């Protein structure tokens, strides 16, 4: 009973302190004491918010809160036939059959200097037929293919398996046949893919979990030697929701199979290192909670 009464007194005292501070909020010291009683968000894998994960290594971030602005550089893109809708965290990019966002120069910081990287993003997209839809691309002016991109292939079958491809510094990782991602059409799904120059290893994560992939895909080679650093060659501009050919010169016009991304996209991040599995898992769990 004594402990119960003491708890009541403590609670009433805290309420009185908070009430007093709300009346006399001009006193900074009192405000700081009141904030001590504010509820704290529980940490997940050592992080409270997704922004707390490797902030020094984050080189580009789009949150799509009714804007095309890349948050690290503050650069605004030029939007064509896109809109915004409710996303996994706030609002999200919503594409269309002729929609994309273009950037006149490379947004973010040091995208051109990536040797290792991790890209994380949420997508929600329905099955499409025909060619490939490009979710984003860091272009390369001297080549048909861009430096870094993520595409979704068309699916004219009745199965529920999505064929995705990633490309980075001249390296392909194609999730074909038995590697296709099952059961994610029409659902918010978190993808992350990374390359670690120190180990020459590629990893793909879906909803915070690393996929089991063949050694031929995970272990990257330059001939018989480990690949080491990748290079973003002649990197220029940036596009969300399309191929670099949608940018026109010097790439010309898109081939008929090069389709804009018609789905939704949210919380896209690019880091200049291969994040640890726990860091990728934390980003997934935190963003899924709106954090």
From TrEMBL:
GO terms for biological process: carbohydrate metabolic process. The keyword Signal applies. This is Concanavalin A-like lectin/glucanase superfamily protein. One of its GO terms (molecular function) is carbohydrate binding. It comes from the Bacteria. Pfam families: Laminin_G_3 (PF13385). PROSITE patterns: PROKAR_LIPOPROTEIN. It comes from Pedobacter metabolipauper. Keywords: Lectin, Signal. The keyword Lipid biosynthesis does not apply. Residues 1-28 form the signal peptide.
